[in-house]
Amino acid sequence: MVSKKLLLLPGDGIGPEAMAEVRKIIAYMNAELESGFELDEGLVGGSAYDAHGLAISEADMAKALASDAVLFGAVGGPKWDSVPYDLRPEAGLLRLRKDMELFANLRPAICYPALADSSSLKKEIVEGLDILIVRELTGGVYFGEPKEIRDLGNGQKRGIDTQVYDTYEIERISGVAFELARTRGNKVTSMEKRNVMKSGVLWNEVVTATHKAKYADVTLEHMLADAGGMQLVRWPKQFDVIVTDNLFGDMLSDIAAMLTGSLGMLPSASLGAPDARTGSRKALYEPVHGSAPDIAGTGAANPIAMIASFAMCLRYSFNMVVEADRLEAAIAGVLDDGIRTADIMSEGKTRVGTTEMGDAILAKFKALAA
Ligand code: NAD
Ligand code: IPM
Ligand code: MN
To answer: Which terms does the record give in the GO molecular function aspect (predicted)?
Structure first.
């Protein structure tokens, strides 16, 4: 039997609230569908800092590396605003990404038909939207050295972050984008700022060369990342797959989230390279949103991004395509029924909390299985 070791890292704020809804789905799948997930759990972020003084303990890091997939909630919050920089909650997530070598972050932005009215943009702009942002996740300014605040000794300090990309990093992330484009609209838009950044010049060159060498059947276009942000809100349906660096990908995916109605809707998959022998790859699945301190503890969080992240886990880590499709259909079905958390609420719909939304999706998932 395929090993299905799942590590749950709920984290902080609304992370554990959203994860509780996924836990119910897994319990049902294990009991009724004999899915055979082996669950383990760990601490990350502020909750890990409070327990161990680290944003993730060595023991939990080892569990993540030994798992078949990690489900991650969210980290951070005002409680940990003054902890030392290297110990802040977000450092736990960055360590997981780096040490698991999760270089490919897939952030699909799909506007469910029932939510075409919930976006801050006009319905005709977002209706039917289905784009995929492929964000490079282990390089760029997030990890480049030097990274420090230097005392210049004259009463001034200098904050330094360094954007670094090597050829192989651009080759492998653009390869992922081209491969995925072939399974959908067959078009890739690469975004960088070659007009001001040397790393942007190299990015553009390497994406172009990779395309020419291996993926000439896919349509490739290049866009400056600032113009790309503008085009995302002007006419997002022009895009199929967008490939971009770590920082631009972070910003562009939050922008794309609003096209779908709410940040509470956007899932993501962070994948490593396939193992040459087994073909399996390290993977972590997480919503694009954060710990939402403003609504944490109120029971109002939208769990859909977390549940849809689990659907991506079923698809990409366990090849459980039928179950993944069914879970996504359950989400769409519940939205069609007019059930809404506060962030996607509109007139005439039924407003529910986190738990009720999770229950409704599970009930629909069960009904679709029958
Ligand atoms: P955020 O994503 O936590 O929240 C932004 C806004 O979106 C808030 O108004 C929040 O209420 C709303 N929102 C987010 N998710 C929602 C959901 N599921 N349902 C309903 N509304 C939702 O971003 P922020 O406020 O900028 O950051 C808060 C903390 O989260 C910071 O410490 C930040 O570093 C951290 N963060 C963590 C992750 C992560 O763990 N992957 C991602 C982004 C931010
Ligand atoms: C995200 C988050 C993270 C990032 C933070 C919490 C480190 O914003 O996953 O989008 O900047 O990558
Ligand atoms: Mn982000």
So the answer is: 3-isopropylmalate dehydrogenase activity; magnesium ion binding; NAD binding
pLDDT tens digits, 190-199: 999 999 999 9
Let me know if 250 is a catalytic residue. yes
C-alpha to C-alpha distance for 239 and 203, rounded to whole angstroms: 19
Q: Which residues contact 236 (CB under 8 A, 6 or more apart)?
A: 109, 125, 126, 129, 131, 256, 259
CA distance 370 to 351: 27
Residue 150's domain comprises 114-132+139-259
Among protein residues, the one whose CA lies closest to atom 12 of ligand 1? 292
pLDDT digits (tens, 9 = 90+) for 6-23: 999 999 999 999 999 999
Cα 348 to averaged position of ligand 3 atoms, centre (Å): 32
For residues 176 and 214, membership in a common domain is answered with yes
In this structure, what DSSP letter does residue 338 have? Answer: T
Percent residues over pLDDT 90 in the chain: 96
Atom of ligand 1 nearest to the CA of 14: 18
What is the pTM for the complete model shown? 0.96
* CA 287 to centroid of ligand 2, rounded, Å: 10
CATH number at residue 213: 3.40.718.10
Cα 317 to Cα 314: distance, rounded to the nearest angstrom: 6
- Check if 90 has its Cβ closer than 6 Å to any atom of ligand 2: yes
d(CA 187, CA 212): 14
**Distance between CA atoms of 287 and 308, rounded to whole angstroms?**
8
Active site residue 254: yes
Other Cβ atoms less than 10 A from the Cβ of 181: the count is 23
User: Is the ipTM here above 0.95?
Assistant: yes
β-bridge partners, 106: 134, 269
Question: 342 CB contacts (<8 Å, ≥6 apart)?
Answer: 295, 300, 302, 351
